[in-house]
Design goal:
With 581 residues, the protein is of the alpha/beta class. The protein has helices spanning 11-19, 37-42, 61-80, 91-99, 119-127, 158-170, 181-190, 214-222, 233-236, 238-245, 257-271, 298-307, 312-339, 360-367, 409-422, 431-439, 462-466, 544-580; strands at 4-9, 45-52, 85-87, 103-110, 130-134, 173-175, 196-200, 226-229, 276-278, 346-351, 371-376, 390-393, 426-429, 443-444, 451-460, 476-484, 487-489, 495-499, 507-510, 514-517. The strands form 4 sheets. A 9-stranded mixed sheet has the order 11-10-12-13-20-19-18-15-16, with helices on both faces. α5 (119-127) runs parallel beside α6 and α11 packs across α12. It is globular and about 75 Å long.
Length: 581
């Protein structure tokens, strides 16, 4: 049975409404609810974000009080059933709980009005264990437009952007369920961490204001976030939505497991299999699809997707791995906030394509004590690197001078030139490495060269084995790649650090601290799960299934080597920050 981490369950409010927030009798069937312990276990629930929601009939301080009472309920729930639940804040704690056979219990605050316009209240929720907050509920707040209310801000107000920045700083995930598309787009542009949608559907399949448009789905996937598909019938079926809007006359159109699977597959197609999850909204709505009437039904949904051809790896990504990865990207921020140690060196990460945002690189830098600010070139880059201790430039599927695809490339080249001049710790990956080579006087092809896909052995030179960063690969390491070689001649005085069988210049160093690589330390076997067969196969192209199988065999070595490389880079960043300070 594959464990499921669900993004949204309203048990706390249901127990408030019907049982005065009592935790008693949950070890037996609770007929009037969707959720109890026997059915959680039957459904294979390995982790649950317990929603703490407050009805909008309460206002101001009363909302804060009701939120705190529900947070207290979650803590008491865990304390009263310690053999069943484990209170967890981080991905590591959640994984440990799942291995122990307990349900990892996390908290999400469902509505920005619940902070009563106070960042201090927001911080207190985080200290009590809340790891996400939905920016609005159904009503527009003083600082954010909701999907089901009249807009007042055109998205986020400036204070709303401050809320998002503070959530990034303290390690709370930004949840875009319930918010207007304009708010979604503003939040994605503001956040430097992956965002989530805890319980919504795809607008392309059902025209409900609570659902997510395709452009936002794509942006969330590109930024390493997650969209957790809800089981709410009016989100899933246009017929059911139309019946509801028309006044619910007659028998409601049936909604089934297939409808949920359709939305999951649409999110996968638009955002990537790495970006899809489950956020059912049990006990937050009355009706549920046939076959998913309560929390015991998750495995039936996974069986439906198996019948549609989903592999076990893909099902695991959907069920729990994606949620843990997104949580992990903000874990270090959250732990640093709790410990009071947040004065960390800063690295600018430049993103060049929607599908090339940082994923595990973020968590590794965080774990190494480095804070990363992520900026997509299309959204504007800083004037200079004065406030940064390091620079990372990611790939983008374009040539170094491809201004039509990347009109911001001159700005990126300017930052790269500054980094070279200052000998600032810099890691150029793929396109980023090719930019560095060209700027420093090397030669880059006018068209793509050798293509490498899947597992490739990267061999370090003697200089590479002595290099503070590249030595993380040892003498050789199998890495997982998807690139085409472009660098033909190293810049003058550059040092060759690594090669592969097909690509002579895989890594190089300029000065003491500027490095370019053509391979992808960001890529793991999980990333290959959403690769598709090339439409125009090149000689030597192998089936994706073969590439995935090979990548899975070397993934542990790949991850260890890439993490060691990033640790070495982070150490140089920390040292540079000390010099700057």
């Amino acid at each position: 049975m594959i464990p499921v981490i669900d993004g949204h369950n309203d048990l706390a409010w249901a127990r408030r409404r019907r049982h005065a927030l009592s935790t008693q009798q949950l070890h037996e069937l609770v007929a009037e609810a969707h959720t109890d312990i026997p059915r959680l276990q039957a459904g294979g629930v390995g982790g649950q974000f317990w929603s703490v929601w407050v009805d909008s009939s309460l206002e101001g301080a009363a909302q804060v009080t009701a939120t705190l009472e529900q947070i207290d309920f979650v803590h008491r729930l865990v304390q009263d059933y310690p053999e069943v639940f484990a209170f967890t804040r981080t991905s590591h704690e959640a994984r440990t709980a799942i291995r122990q056979g307990r349900i990892a219990s996390l908290i999400g605050v469902e509505g920005g009005a619940q902070i009563d316009n106070s960042l201090g209240v927001l911080r207190q929720y985080a200290r009590l264990g809340a790891r996400y907050m939905t920016l609005t509920w159904n009503h527009t707040t003083d600082w954010a437009d909701a999907a089901t209310d009249a807009p007042r801000h055109g998205g986020l107000s400036e204070f709303g952007r401050d809320v998002v920045r503070e959530m990034n700083r303290i390690g709370m995930l930004v949840d875009l369920a319930h918010v207007a598309p304009s708010t979604m787009r503003d939040a994605i542009a503001t956040s430097i961490r992956p965002v989530m949608v805890s319980h919504s559907g795809a607008a392309a399949l059902c025209d409900h204001p609570r659902n997510v448009p395709d452009d936002v789905l794509a942006a969330i996937g590109a930024g390493g976030g997650i969209v957790m598909v809800a089981f709410v019938p009016t989100f899933l079926s246009q017929q059911r939505r139309d019946w509801h809007v028309a006044g619910e006359v007659g028998t409601p159109p049936e909604v089934t497991i297939a409808h949920v699977a359709d939305h999951i597959e649409h999110v996968r197609a638009v955002a990537g299999v790495h970006a899809v999850g489950i956020g059912a909204d049990y006990d937050g709505t009355d009706a549920m699809p046939t076959g998913l009437e309560d929390v015991s039904g998750y495995q039936r949904l996974l069986d439906e997707l198996r019948r549609r051809g989903w592999s076990e790896d893909e099902l695991q990504a959907l069920a729990f791995r994606n949620a843990l990865r997104v949580l992990e990207a903000s874990d270090a921020d959250h732990l640093a906030f709790l410990s009071g140690r947040q004065d960390r060196p800063r690295v600018l990460i430049v993103v060049n394509a929607d599908g090339s945002g940082p994923r595990r690189l973020l968590s590794w830098l965080n774990a190494a004590g480095v804070r990363a600010d992520v900026r997509h070139g299309a959204h504007g880059l800083p004037e200079n690197l004065e406030s940064y201790d390091g620079l990372v430039m990611l790939g983008g599927g374009m040539m170094p001078d491809d201004i039509e695809k990347g009109p911001w490339l001159p700005d990126e080249r300017r930052l790269a030139s500054e980094a070279i001049e200052r000998d600032l710790p810099t890691l150029g990956i793929c396109l980023g490495g090719q930019l560095l080579a060209q700027i420093a006087g090397g030669e880059v092809r006018e068209s793509y060269g050798v293509k490498e896909r899947g597992s490739t052995v990267i061999t370090t030179t003697s200089d590479g084995r002595d290099d503070a960063v590249m030595s993380g690969l040892g003498s050789a390491a199998p890495l997982i790649e998807n690139h085409q070689d472009q660098i033909t001649v190293l810049p003058p005085d550059a040092v060759l650090l690594a090669s592969s069988e097909g690509v002579a210049i895989q890594a190089f160093r300029i000065g003491a601290h500027v490095r370019g690589v053509q391979f992808h330390p960001e890529v793991s076997a999980d990333d290959l799960l959403w690769w598709s067969e090339p439409t125009d196969p090149a000689p030597g192209d192998r089936p994706v299934a073969d590439l995935v199988a090979e990548a899975l065999r070397v993934d542990e070595q790949n991850t260890a080597a890439c993490q060691a490389l990033v640790r070495g880079f982070a150490q140089e960043v920390r040292e540079a920050a000390g010099i700057r300070a």
